[in-house]
Amino acid sequence: MIASANGKLARKEDIMIDDMELVYFKNILTRQLQDLQRQADGTVINLLNQDARTTEFLDMAAIESERAYTLRMRGRESRLIRKIKQSLQDIEDGEYGICQFCRGDISIARLRARPVARHCIKCKSKMEHLERVAGF
Questions:
Q1: CB count in 10 Å sphere of residue 119
Q2: Measured between alpha carbons, how far is 63 from 44 in angstroms, rounded to an integer?
């Protein structure tokens, strides 16, 4: 680690997050959250307004297939909404950018690629390896 001009410690990889970067990530996460919530609201309205009454079996199958697909996508988005909310809470708590396993810093490059990341690349790689070995 080296001392930067503002007195904070920094690493060569520029891992530690400064206040400007926190604002940047908070804005990105907030925008994503708003977009996802708007989409979810639209989906609920569409599902409620959708008229599934038909006597054609193929039409009914197509409607049900589309509905199931839509609900699966909304389920994924719901999990992402929870992750975004947790990341926003981590920012407020001063925990954003800290790996949940090793308590080390998560690189800025990783956070830019996946702002909801809760694990450093080393720990995430270990987790994925264990999942492959265990057959998950």
A1: 19
A2: 15
State how far Cα 97 lies from the chain centre.
13
Question: CB burial class (10 A; 0-12, 13-18, 19+) of residue 61?
Answer: exposed
| Phi, psi (rounded to 5 degrees) for 10 | -135, 155
| Rounded Cα gap, residues 8 and 12, in angstroms | 13
Is residue 17's pLDDT more than 90? no
10, 16 in Cβ contact below 8 A?
yes
pLDDT, tens digit, for every residue of 26-38? 999 999 999 998 8
pLDDT of residue 47: 66
Strand partners for 107: none
Radius of gyration of the chain (CA): 21
Question: What is the rounded CA–CA span in Å between residue 123 and residue 104?
Answer: 10
Of the candidates 41, 43, 22, the one whose C-alpha atom is nearest the C-alpha of residue 98 is 22
CB 8 within 8 A of CB 16: yes
- Confirm if 100 and 119 have CB atoms less than 8 A apart: yes
